[in-house]
Design goal:
Structural class: alpha+beta
Shape: extended
Helix content: 40-55%
Strand order of the largest sheet: 1-2-5
Number of strands: 5
Strand content: 15-25%
Order of helices and strands: HHEEEEEH
Number of helices: 3
């Protein structure tokens, strides 16, 4: 699902226009981005938590030349899914795997 499809789905469920939904979604994304840039977490209970962590400097290799290089330290965004989201995905995955398994039939003699 891309941003346009997400906006259409939200607009349908919330009974708002696509333009209104776009403004709300863009506002949400701006607030999340600004909050993370300040070094704070964003926790949406049931959905998950966005957090900023430090990644240490490390050694790596240039894939083109194979030459060793130092990858500098930086801050990265991490997402930890909440229980409700994890359960929903696990339930859908279990249902999909059951549906894809062919049923075995008894052999006739």
């Amino acid at each position: 699902m891309n941003k346009t499809e997400l906006i259409e789905a939200i607009a349908t469920r919330s009974n708002t226009t696509k333009a209104q939904t776009t403004i709300m979604l863009d506002g949400l994304l701006e607030v999340v981005q600004e909050t993370l840039a300040e070094g704070n977490n964003v926790q949406l209970v049931g959905f998950g938590t966005f957090s900023v962590t430090d990644r240490a400097e490390r050694e790596g290799r240039n894939p083109a030349t194979g030459k060793a290089m130092t990858i500098p330290a930086k801050k990265v965004v991490k997402f930890k899914p909440g229980k409700t989201l994890s359960d929903a995905v696990a339930t859908k995955s279990a249902q999909a795997s059951k549906a894809s398994k062919p049923k075995q039939t008894a052999k006739k003699k």
